[in-house]
Specification:
This protein has about 160 residues and is of the alpha+beta class. The protein is built from 7 helices and 4 strands, in the order ααααβααβββα. The two termini are about 20 Å apart. The chain binds FE2/S2 (inorganic) cluster.
């Protein structure tokens, strides 16, 4: 199920874990990345097989962590931090601005599938608050103006210039 390149990473990972179930979290990350940012039952079953555990065990672990998703995110998944340091410098207002601008609430995806929003606990960028992650890129010291520019630029980014799927 993994692409040949990712399968190499899977093999490498499994060779490092004599007890296969200990490779569960990194394998879930790879599976989610391979499946355009989310996990479905097909991938849960595949990871379960690789780790020699039941699919229920994999589901139990994956649903415990907020970084694993069970429905497709937008092409650009916006993870906005509203934890205390970000909250003190406008994190919730940034989230509200995004929701207003995109016409969706947190946890939802725009109709065109371009953007989805998720509210996050600390993402480790407190010194540059308020902050968010767009796919895998950190965007820091956010302002409503910066958000507007970013959304405009992402909405018009040609396919070939994308940095992350
Ligand atoms: S509280 Fe927002 S990055 Fe830490």
């Amino acid at each position: 199920m993994f692409s040949p390149e990712t399968q190499q990473q899977v093999d490498c990972l499994l060779s490092r874990y004599p007890i296969r179930r200990n490779a569960l979290l990194p394998l879930l990350h790879l599976a989610q990345k391979e499946n355009q940012g989310w996990l479905d039952s097909k991938w849960v079953n595949h990871v379960a097989e690789l780790c020699e555990v039941s699919p229920t065990h994999v589901e139990g672990v994956a649903t415990f962590y907020t970084m694993f998703r069970f429905r497709p995110p937008g092409k650009y998944h916006l993870q906005v931090c509203t934890c205390v340091p970000c909250c003190l410098v406008g994190g919730p207002e940034i989230l509200e601005h995004l929701e207003h601008k995109l016409g969706i609430h947190t946890g939802h995806t725009t109709k065109d599938g371009l953007f989805s929003i998720e509210e996050m606990e600390c993402i480790g960028a407190c010194a540059y608050a308020p902050a968010m992650i767009v796919n895998e890129d950190y965007i820091e010291q956010l302002t409503p103006e910066k958000i507007d520019q970013l959304l405009d630029s992402l909405a018009t980014t040609p396919q070939e210039q994308e940095t992350h799927a």
